Amino acid sequence: MVEAGAYSRVPVWAGRREWLAEVEARGATAGALAVARVLAEAADGRTGRGVALGVDTAAERAGVTDRTVRRARAWLAAEGLAVEVFKGRHLTRAERAERRDVGARGIRAASVWALTGGAVSAHPSGFSREGSSGNENTPKARRAGAKRSAKTQTAPRSIRLQRLTAEVARRAPHLAPVGRHVGGLADVLVRALGPAVEGATAGDVLAIAEAGGTGRVWAAQDARDPWAWLGARLRAGRASGHRTAAERAAKAAEERAERARRREAEEAAERAASRPAVVASARASIRASIESARRTALYSTHRPVIVNP
């Protein structure tokens, strides 16, 4: 039931052993790792594709619950280690009839997954040969593949972001569900807060989330997807004007600097405006002094001489 071309943009894996090593290196929980082993066993050994296990089947083989399987698959997808190329659904009547004709049972078609990554892809371009022109081994194709790989590489998370994520998870454990890698929580914070995430504190995150709706952050424990809940609340809180303490401090400093610039400009304008008046006053004072001196000189020259009899 997988559509033609569904695998065309999914890199083949580097191999079962390499893929499992990458899963473990990403910090998979014990349950997620058990599910990953079952999925890897069901995958095509060369490409990592064609994993069509139902949730209940995967859970039985891995010795975990159905919920753990769902969480493990969601985590693998978030980490870029698995891609769902066909979403499971109920079969149509015609499809059920076809199954009965070949002796098969069931009313649902299982999801189909492709496991990807783990190391350098088996193909030079890093992608499937399906739907390609067959010229992927040329220097030009290899350069194009290198460019695509560079674009899809994830930048390493900063130490500040890692510490923030760990503190949020510590203060609100329900925001770090069991079976989901904490890196997903970091991605939620980055998408919701943007550049401000580098200066945010756990207190900022919880305060903005609570400002984004009714109810405390603890309400997330009842949410179907705590990360989706947190992202929505953070975006709503930001939209209503709530900012991190660092952002508020930066804004206050900018406003103080702007007020200082305005004062300096006003004082300079006042000084410039007062110059003509000062010059005129000085000139008037000089003229008055000259006039006073002239009168004094005239008085001294023409005053009468008094002779004693």
Q: Rg to the nearest angstrom?
A: 38 Å
What is the overall pLDDT average?
A: 76
Would you count the extended β strands for me? Answer: 4
Strand content: under 5%
Main beta-sheet strand count, sense and barrel state: 2 strands, antiparallel
Low-confidence stretches: 119-142, 144-153
- According to CATH, the fold-level topology of the domain at 16-122 is Arc Repressor Mutant, subunit A
CATH level-1 class of the domain at 16-122: Mainly Alpha
Shape: rod-shaped
Helix-strand category: mainly alpha
- Our count of helices gives 11
- Termini separation comes to 146 Å
Oligomer description: single chain
> What order do the SSEs take from the amino end to the carboxyl end, as H and E?
HHHHEEHEEHHHHHH
Strand order of the largest sheet: 1-4
CATH architecture of the domain at 16-122: Orthogonal Bundle
Q: Classify the helix fraction into a percent range.
A: 55-70%
Protein name: Helix-turn-helix protein
